[in-house]
Design goal:
By secondary structure, the chain is an all-alpha fold. It has one domain. It is built from four helices and no strands. It is elongated, with a radius of gyration of 16 Å. Bound molecules: protoporphyrin IX containing FE (2 copies).
């Protein structure tokens, strides 16, 4: 195991923070517009970079069985996380491109808290995996 295993966590921590930022920019008393789009679109783009890299690094390091068991749950929840950002980002970018359709807006608004929860869970599971592999990353 080597330092390349830190690339995914670094990108993915940024994703979790960006999703939380996008959420807070639309749920506090003052609503932000452009800042929300930037945070959301960056989160979307970074997930699309972070997850295939992680799949590659795990395969390259010898497979999922060599990692802490938390990686199994992290991988399972990844399916939820990717679906969540595709739907949420799709609705958001759809509204920017095609106008604020009422159904899109209310779905985007209604599912936002679940999207945030899924990403916080994914980040917490990721930290658990990271904690488990730190000795190997730096050890050899
Ligand atoms: C590609 C990413 C995203 C884009 C392009 C986007 C875009 C939008 C747009 C166009 C609106 C309608 C209101 C407005 O005109 O500003 C909106 C509202 C909202 N977005 Fe996003 N969004 C994105 C990601 C997210 C994410 C990741 C979350 C949270 C997890 C989120 C939470 C919300 C909430 C709660 C509202 C409702 C705000 C209100 O009460 O008016 N969005 N977003
Ligand atoms: C943004 C949400 C995230 C997604 C979509 C995601 C997705 C993935 C995927 C698909 C894998 C490969 C699993 C496999 O091959 O079976 C993985 C591995 C891993 N993830 Fe995440 N993850 C996210 C967030 C995080 C966070 C926040 C951390 C750490 C703080 C993290 C730490 C790890 C670690 C340590 C691995 C093992 C491989 C490596 O280090 O590159 N993940 N993740």
């Amino acid at each position: 195991m080597d330092l390349t295993l830190l690339i995914h966590p670094a990108l993915a921590i940024s994703v979790v923070l960006l999703v939380a930022t996008a959420y807070l920019l639309k749920t506090r008393r003052r609503l932000y517009f452009v800042a929300h789009y930037v945070a959301g679109i960056l989160a979307f783009a970074l997930v699309m970079t972070a997850f295939p890299l992680a799949l590659y690094f795990v395969a390259d390091a010898g497979g999922i069985s060599l990692f802490p068991p938390a990686l199994i749950v992290h991988t399972a929840n990844f399916v939820l996380a990717i679906s969540a950002i595709v739907v949420q980002g799709g609705l958001g970018m759809g509204m920017l491109l095609f106008g604020r359709r009422r159904g899109w807006y209310s779905t985007h608004r209604r599912i936002a808290k679940y999207v945030l929860a899924i990403f916080i869970a994914q980040g917490t599971l990721g930290l658990a995996v990271l904690y488990g592999i730190i000795p190997y990353v730096f050890g050899q």
